[in-house]
Design brief:
2 copies of one chain form a homodimer. Chain A is an alpha/beta fold. Chain A is built from 14 helices and 8 strands. In chain A, helix 1 packs parallel to helix 6, helix 8 packs across helix 13 and helix 13 crosses helix 14. The longest helix of chain A has 30 residues. The interface between A and B is large, with 72 and 72 residues.
C-alpha cells in the first residue's frame, strides 16, 4: 500500500526519499522522481516527516527504533508517522522514545485497503499530540478522504482495532447467512437483494458476499495480516480485562482458514473455514 | 406493525375487513373505513386476499388453520398471505393445507421494523407459487420499497432468517467494538466517524451504536421476538445439519439479555449482556 500512497504524495508536489527492503518494488516511485535511500535512517535523514507503511509490529520497531531506523537520524522538529496497523503499546513506546529525542510521532493506521490507497480514499485514524497531527494533516488529506484525530499516542491504533473487531465479527454472520441460504435452497444473490439495503446491511454483505459466491478469494487484505490484527486486538483486550467472545470466535475461525493454507487469501476466505466445518460448498468454482 | 400496513392499504383504495384480539387497537382503521370482523375467518370471508401480521408461529397457525381461522372461510381463488416472521416449515404446511382447499398462500415476512411499516419502506421477502406472488405484488408494493420473490413456499421465511442471522452476529461485533473503544479511552462517536463509512460499516454501527451510546434501548424490534427468530433459525439450521457457531453465540447472549429482564427492550440491548459480562458500562445514563 505504500507504493500508491507515496505516489500520491509525489503527485501532490512533495519531495520523497524512499527505502524498501526490495528495491525493485520502489522503481515506479524512482521513475516518478523519488530518491532512493539505503535504509530507513537514510530515507528519514533531513526529512520533515518520516512515514512508514510496513508489515508487522516487529517491522515497525525496526523501521523506527532499529540501528538503521528513522530515530537514528531524527532531529527536531522532525515528525515520525507510522501508518502500519500495529500494536497500540508499540505506538506509545515509539512516541516516548521520539519525545526523548525532541521529535514528534503519530500512529496513523488506515482502512480502505489497496483500493483505498490507489484512489486516495483511505480512512486515516490518528493518535499522538494534537499539534503534531495538525502539522501532518495536509499530508493525510492527500492520501485519504476521512482523516480523524482520535487522541493521544496509540489511539489511532486502538481505533483501527475497533475497525477490525467490527469486520471480523460481521464476517462470521455474512458467511453463516450465505451458508444458511445455500442449505435452504435460496438464490443467495436474491437474498442479498432483499436484505442488503436494510438493518442487516453492511459493506461486507454487499461487497464481499458476491465475491464469495464467485469463489473469488483474491486478497483485498490478507488473512495472515488480519490474524495479526485480531491477535493484537485480543491481546489488548486481555490487557484491559475485556472479554470479547465474538472476536475470540472470529480469531479461531481465521486460524482455521490459515491452517488450510489460505493465509494469502483475502479476508472473505473465512467462508472456507465455515464450509469445511459443514462439509459444504456454497457454490461451484 | 399491522396497523400502519393496513392503513396504507386503505389509503390506496383497498376495502378491508379487520380482526384483532384487542378490538380497541383496530379503532384507527375502523375510523379510516375498515370493517370490523369478529374472527380471522370472518375477516377473510369473501376477501380476495387474507393477510396476517401476528406474533409467534402459534398465532400464525391459529390465524390460518384454527377453528375460526382464515382457511375455514376460504374458497378459490382466495390468497392467504402471512407477513409474520415465522417458521419456514409452518409456511410449507399452510401452503399444503391451502392447496387442498384450492386456495393459494404466500409467506411474506418483512424487515424494516415499525419505521418501515409506517413509511411503507419495508423489504418484503416472498415465498410461494410465483403466479400467486404476481397476484399479490401490487399489494406488497403499497407496503414496501423492496419486494422480492424468493422461491417456493417457506423461502420468504428462510430469507428473513438470513436477515436475522446477519443482524444478530453483526450486533455482537458492534457491542464488542464499542466496549473496546470505551476501555481504550477512545471517544466512540469519533471512532464511528472513522470506521462507519468503510469496510467495517454497517446499518447497525451507524444507526444503533449511537442509540447505545445514549443508552436508548427503546425497541425498534423486541429482544423477545428476536430470540424467537434466532431460535427458529437455529432449529432450521439443525434440521439442515448446519453448524452456525456465530449465530449460536448470538442467541446465548440474547438469552442473557432476556434473563436480565430486558425482553421488551430493542435488539441494541445486546450491549447490556456484554456490559454485564465485563462488569462495565459504556456510558452514563
Amino acid at each position: 500500500m505504500g507504493l500508491p500512497m507515496a505516489s500520491h504524495l509525489l503527485a501532490a508536489g512533495y519531495q520523497i526519499s524512499v527505502f524498501n527492503r526490495t528495491r525493485s518494488r520502489a522503481e515506479p516511485l524512482l521513475e516518478q522522481g523519488a530518491v532512493w535511500a539505503e535504509s530507513a535512517a537514510a530515507a528519514a535523514d533531513g526529512a520533515d516527516v518520516a512515514i512508514s507503511m510496513v508489515g508487522y509490529p516487529d517491522d515497525v520497531r525496526a523501521t523506527h527504533l532499529g540501528e538503521a531506523g528513522t530515530l537514528a537520524a531524527a532531529y527536531p522538529p522532525q515528525l515520525l508517522v507510522d501508518m502500519t496497523t500495529s500494536r497500540p503499546s508499540l505506538a506509545v513506546h515509539i512516541a516516548r522514545e521520539a519525545k526523548r529525542r525532541g521529535v514528534g510521532s503519530l500512529d496513523a493506521p488506515v482502512s480502505g485497503g489497496d483500493v483505498g490507497a490507489r484512489n486516495a480514499t483511505l480512512s486515516i485514524m490518528v493518535g499522538g499530540v494534537e499539534e503534531h497531527f495538525q502539522r501532518a494533516q495536509q499530508l493525510f488529506e492527500v492520501l485519504g478522504k476521512s482523516v480523524v484525530y482520535q487522541g493521544e499516542a496509540g489511539m489511532g491504533q486502538h481505533t483501527k482495532m475497533v475497525n477490525q473487531v467490527l469486520i471480523a465479527t460481521n464476517m462470521i454472520g455474512v458467511c453463516e447467512g450465505l451458508l444458511y441460504a445455500r442449505k435452504a435452497g435460496l438464490d443467495p444473490l436474491k437474498v442479498i437483494e432483499s436484505v442488503g439495503g436494510g438493518a442487516a446491511g453492511s459493506w461486507s454483505i454487499n461487497n464481499l458476499a458476491p465475491r464469495m459466491l464467485r469463489r473469488d478469494f483474491e486478497p483485498g487484505f490478507y488473512v495472515e495480516h488480519f490474524i495479526k490484527d485480531l491477535s493484537i486486538a485480543l491481546d489488548e483486550a486481555s490487557r484491559m480485562s475485556l472479554a470479547l467472545p465474538g472476536l475470540a470466535l472470529a480469531r479461531q475461525l481465521y486460524e482455521a482458514v490459515n491452517a488450510h493454507g489460505h493465509g494469502r487469501a483475502g479476508t472473505q476466505a473465512l467462508l472456507l473455514a465455515l464450509e469445511q466445518l459443514n462439509a459444504l460448498q456454497l457454490s461451484s468454482d
